[in-house]
Every structure is written in structure tokens, then in C-alpha cells.
Amino acid sequence: MNTSSTRPRYRPYTLKNLHELPPYDVIPPHRMRDIKLAARVLPFRVSNYVVDELIDWDRIPDDPMFQLTFPQPEMIPESDFRRLRSCAASGHESVAKAVVQKIHMGMNPHPAGQMDLNVPVLDGELLSGMQHKYEETVLFFPAQGQTCHSYCTYCFRWPQFVGLDSAFRFACNDETLLPRYLKEHREVTDVLFTGGDPLVMHARLLEKYIRPLLDKKPGNLSSIRFGTKSLAYWPYRFTEDKDADDIIRLFEEIIKAGYHLTVMAHFSHDRELSTPAVETAMARIRATGAQIRCQAPLIRHVNDTAEVWSSMWKRQIALGAIPYYMFIERDTGPAGYFNVPLMEAYRIFTEAYRGVSGLCRTVRGPSMSAGPGKVLMDGVADIGGERVMILKFIQARNPAWVNQVFFAAWNPSAHWLDDLQPAFGEKSFFYDAEYRRMQDALRRRREGVAA
Ligand SMILES: *Cc1c(COP(=O)(O)O)cnc(C)c1O
Ligand code: SF4
Description:
Elements: E1 12-13, H1 29-41, E2 46-47, H2 48-54, H3 64-69, H4 78-89, H5 93-106, E3 121-122, E4 125-126, E5 130-134, E6 137-140, H6 158-161, H7 177-184, E7 190-193, H8 203-216, E8 223-228, H9 230-233, H10 244-256, E9 260-266, H11 276-287, E10 291-298, H12 306-318, E11 322-328, H13 335-338, H14 342-354, E12 364-369, E13 373-383, E14 386-396, E15 405-409, H15 432-450
Parallel strand pairs: 6-7, 7-8, 8-9, 9-10, 10-11, 11-12
Antiparallel strand pairs: 1-2, 3-4, 5-6, 12-13, 13-14, 14-15
Helix pairs in contact: 4-5, 8-10, 12-14
Bound molecules: pyridoxal-5'-phosphate and iron/sulfur cluster (SF4).
């Protein structure tokens, strides 16, 4: 679109070229030393756009955009960090590596281990690179989209970005599998391309995966979604990159083929919606006929106030986007640093929700993407003399659970579904027994295929 010589060019900063960071000297030397250590534990890559246009360097280290992208020493348990610092200072490199590994193992690298169980089977073979957990929606992880323009310090996919998991373990590079699977699974109406960030891929590669869906219209597919944080981390993806026009054309083609197209945009803070670059990018996407739906987890130190969320939702509406989900952060990585208890999340959500018009209230949350499904922390009540937390499935392994409420004993310090006990002295939640049977069946299927 813009052919001037001042066209912004993507440039990531990592540990290797951190000394070239323009505001390098703004970070006090002792803090910089600790950030470099923390970046050996947590994923670190930050785009020049985030550095130049989003971070408020007068407010570091508390600035939310800085907390979002720069690993901080406080994110690592204190005694572990002290050990790492002393090994590094005394040059004991092999010991330092072992300390990093120990810290990784202490950060719950594979929460729930359910990813494996959701891998679908086609003609007796496991389709790694796809997940099919909810009837109507398949997730597709293209192999070349398993990275991001910047990394979030809180990302639950951190094991893949720090090299603990092979990026390809859950990724697919065969564009024929998805259409074949859709043909056999007529219950699937939605495909969600996810990652990492599938929109880091070159337009040509993205097209390789999309083209078969346009040519063959397999099964009952009616919606295509791209999960992405490009609008927040590199909005020039849609306006200035060499293949930006090709991406936009591909969006137009998807819509011309009769699909609904949604960009599932990850926005963590209203500042990400404040630049001319993001405004232009969103307008360009909307002009193709695509929708933009917005979601993010609630994160301590990044977006843990009602004001941030209500401004975000209002700004999204003003830019033609649709508020979609507020998530509870999973229990992995630096969870202790980022976690917000369910009751506090509920309070923040409610305060934010009360302050906006009905157009913003398409948002749902706070929601936990747990093993049995997406569970809302939906209210508090006193029933029969007992204070209870009201939970509700908005998505579930068994469609019969969707829109069902259930009750947990009052627990203001709970962070996740696993921390909760059924209310009224009951032994289990209504779905527990069936969920266990489903898991056993999935495990048996998995073993049968692997054998
Ligand atoms: C959230 C999610 C989806 C999409 O669910 P929608 O409610 O349709 O947005 C699909 N698969 C998995 C595993 C998910 O967590
Ligand atoms: S953009 Fe998404 S996948 Fe990438 S680091 Fe952030 S949360 Fe993780």
C-alpha cells in the first residue's frame, strides 16, 4: 500500500541484539542484567513496534506493555532467581543451565496434558497439528505459524518458545489433511487457525493451507478464524509488509467463497488499540468483510483493573471490532506472578461490564479453558445458608453441558476450577463421572492408535 522509503520494517529484539535496543540506556544496568537472566527462563522477543510505539519508557518497570513483553526477575521464584544470578556471575555456565532447567520443570510445563487427548484420528492415524475438542470447531496449527511477532511473558505456550517442546510436535504442514478430516466430520462448522500466530506466515504459505478450503468447500465448514496477536504486536502486517496486500486479498477471497471470516484478535491492553497503525490495520481488515473478535487473559501487572477492560471494549467497538472473551490465565509459567483469583476476576469483569453499553456486552468471562470445557465464573449467591460460587459451561466436551450452571463452595482464594469443591457437601460436580469416562475413552483410543 505504502511505497515510500519510510515503510516500517519488522525488526525483533531478542537476547542476542538487546544491546541495540534504542532505549537500552533507559533501563538501569542492574535491571537490565536481571532481565537478561529472566530471559534465559522465559520466552523473549519484542518487535520494534512494541518498543517504539507501545511501551511507555518513563514508567518502566511497571508499564503494562513492558511487563507484557520483557521478562522480569520477579516472575521467577526468588530463591531460584538468586541461584541463577550467582551461577551466572561466577561463570558456572553448566550449573546455570541446570538451574534454568529446574525452574522450567517447576513451572508446570504441561498443564492438564489434555492437548494429546484432543488430537483427532483420520484413517487410523493421529493428526498432530490439529485439535478437536468441541464438536463444531477444529483447531489447526500450521507448522510455519508456531512463533509470534513478540512473545507475551505470560504465554501458556512458553515451553514451545523456550525450546522445551518441539514447535512441530503439535504442528501440521500437510494442507490435505484438514479438508479430508472435514469431509468425514460433518459436525465441524468452524476451523480456527492458531499457533503461535498463523499470521506471521508469509501470505503464500497461509494460502497453501487456505486454498484447498476455497476450492473444495469440504464438509459443512462455514467459518474460518485466525487467532492472532499481530494487530497488537505488528499491525503493519496488514498494511506495510511486502505481502500485506496479498494477505488482504486472501481475506477477500475467503469471503467471496462464502465463508464467514473472523480475526480472533488478542488484545491485552487499551494502549494496543491506541496507535494510528492499529487503527488503519483494523479498518483494512474490516473492509474485506472480515469480523474482528477480541479476547485476552486477565493478567496481574498487565490488565488487572476494570478501567483497562472497559476502555478496551469501548475502543474495540469504536474500531468496528467485537468483544469476545476474557480468560482466566492457566496455571503454568510464572503463574504466581500473573494469577488473579477467580473472585477478583469476577469483580473486575463485573465492574467493567457495568460501565459499558450493551454493544460491548457480547464479551463473556471470566472464563477458564479447563479440561471439561470453557467454564464461566458467573456469580455469587447465598443458598440455604451457604455462600456459593456459580459456574457455567459456555463450551463443553459434551454439548449437553453447555449453558448449565453448577455450584462450588465459596473459596475466595481459588484460581482455577481444580481449586474448587462442589457446594452443598456434594462429592462431585455433575459432569465429573462422565468427564472421566470420556478421558478414559480418549486415552484408550490414543493407545490403540499409537500401538
Ligand atoms: C475456545 C476454544 C475453541 C473455540 O470455541 P468457541 O466457543 O467457538 O469460540 C475451540 N477449541 C478449543 C480447544 C478452545 O479452547
Ligand atoms: S501472541 Fe499468543 S501465542 Fe504468541 S506469545 Fe502471546 S499469547 Fe503466546
